[in-house]
């Protein structure tokens, strides 16, 4: 192994600078034959693994990377519908060819034709299409959620007409000038058990103007999940937060309650309590099998629309649940429970009711202060309560006492 010819052949595929460094190290320790041989054997082994292009997967390999190997074994012999040059973000940020067959959805390497990853249609739970926020040119994200929470796909299509050379289909009619989004939705709906879900203006429209596309209505709300910024979409089936990995989808069936916290003048927080287990048998188990997820810094301008969405879909408005109201209003906690989505007879939700009661309490204090101001008598300072009345009779009594003292003083002088 110490022969220069053998060393050069070992490192011939390495970058020149790395090769020079490796040879310099082996030369430096050439007198230590054991160390030199061990080092070179390790490098040679790495080189052999590189040439083979594969190695044994480690115990910590993620399911998404193992899925790449499994995907090539899935039989799918029918004619594919496909769209080329599609930008994927999850699980890998790269352009692939989107292929849709009878059994699977695939992301295929456009150069080699190798299937990078695939998911079976039978394992797809939801597919959601949403406009990409804060982009000058319209784009649309497609989010695919499977039965495995860590298996997600996110790809983006432009908001323009599809290029004829980019699309391939056998029996799916495509009109001239049809948009990428519409063609993709038709291809997906042809195979999905649940049709592609899109936001609807009747569910929610933001009151904030879009700086990037003025005049176009926004169907998202900007929010933070801890330090991660993103966008909330209020959908017909639930609430989605994206678009950074991992995507989060909260279907109505998985939502235990929704609450508001940190309601300030300009922002508020939205807390979604979700079930961590599909079934519960008691109230205690229900509490143990839920977790609360907080989204912060939502703009107050969108509060009415969000609150209306919660009520419309019969979600529990728990923002002023008794314990929170007791803490905020400093009152004793009382245990009263409403069914999810219930409102008072006048249509008032719990949040508005609590705010109204708080404002009413402040108003009563103000009224008392005003009454005190009206009853305030500058001449009565230092008097105790109740001494303001009958002040004239008090003055007369003082004058009589002074007269008596003068009279007693006069009699004393007379005796002298």
Description:
Helix content is 32%, strand content 24%. By secondary structure, it is an alpha+beta fold. Strands 1, 2, 3, 4, 5, 6, 7 and 8 form an eight-stranded antiparallel beta sheet that branches. It has a four-stranded antiparallel beta sheet with strand order 9-10-11-12, with no helix packed on it. Strands 13-14-15 form a three-stranded antiparallel beta sheet. Strand 5 (124-131) and strand 6 form a beta hairpin. The longest helix is centred in the C-terminal third of the chain and has 26 residues, at 350-375. The N and C termini lie far apart (139 Å).
Short overview:
The chain has 416 residues and is α+β, with helices and mostly antiparallel strands.
The average pLDDT score comes to 75
What is the H/E order? HHHHEEEEEEEEHEEEEEEHEHHHH
How much helix, percentage-wise, in residues?
25-40%
Number of strands: 15
Largest sheet: 8 strands, antiparallel
Per DSSP, the total helix count is: 10
């Amino acid at each position: 192994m110490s022969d220069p010819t053998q060393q050069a052949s070992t490192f011939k595929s390495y970058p020149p600078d790395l090769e020079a460094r490796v040879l310099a190290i082996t030369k430096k320790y050439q007198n230590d034959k054991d160390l030199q041989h061990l080092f070179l054997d390790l490098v040679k082994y790495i080189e052999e693994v590189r040439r083979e292009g594969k190695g044994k997967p480690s115990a910590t390999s993620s399911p998404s990377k193992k899925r790449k190997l499994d995907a090539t074994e899935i039989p799918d012999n029918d004619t594919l519908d496909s769209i080329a040059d599609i930008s994927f973000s999850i699980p890998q940020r790269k352009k692939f060819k989107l292929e849709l067959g009878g059994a699977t959805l695939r992301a295929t390497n456009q150069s080699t034709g190798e299937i990078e990853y695939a998911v079976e249609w039978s394992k797809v739970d939801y597919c959601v299409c949403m406009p990409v926020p804060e982009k000058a040119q319209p784009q649309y994200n497609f989010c695919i959620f499977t039965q495995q929470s860590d298996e997600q796909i996110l790809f983006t299509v432009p908001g323009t007409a599809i290029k004829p050379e980019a699309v391939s289909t056998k029996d799916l009619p495509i009109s001239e000038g049809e948009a990428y989004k519409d063609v993709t939705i038709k291809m997906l709906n042809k195979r999905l058990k649940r049709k592609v879900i899109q936001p609807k203006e009747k569910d929610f429209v933001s009151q904030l103007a879009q700086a990037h596309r003025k005049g176009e209505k926004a169907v998202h709300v900007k929010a933070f999940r801890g330090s991660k910024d993103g966008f909330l979409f209020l959908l017909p089936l639930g609430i989605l937060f994206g678009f950074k990995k991992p995507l989060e989808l909260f279907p109505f069936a998985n939502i235990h309650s929704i609450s508001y916290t940190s309601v300030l003048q300009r922002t508020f927080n939205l807390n979604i309590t979700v079930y961590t287990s599909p079934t519960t048998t008691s109230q205690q188990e229900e509490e143990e099998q839920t977790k609360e997820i907080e989204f912060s810094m939502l703009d107050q301008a969108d509060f009415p629309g969000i609150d209306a969405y919660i009520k419309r879909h019969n979600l529990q408005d728990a923002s002023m649940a008794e314990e929170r109201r007791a803490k905020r209003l400093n009152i004793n906690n009382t245990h009263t429970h409403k069914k999810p989505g219930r409102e008072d007879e006048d249509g008032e939700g719990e949040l508005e009711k609590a705010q109204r009661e708080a404002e009413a309490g402040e108003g009563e204090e103000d009224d008392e202060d005003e009454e005190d101001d009206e009853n305030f008598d500058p001449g009565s300072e230092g008097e105790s309560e109740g001494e303001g009345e009958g002040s004239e009779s008090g003055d007369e009594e003082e004058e009589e006492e002074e007269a008596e003292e003068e009279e007693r003083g006069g009699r004393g002088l007379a005796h002298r």
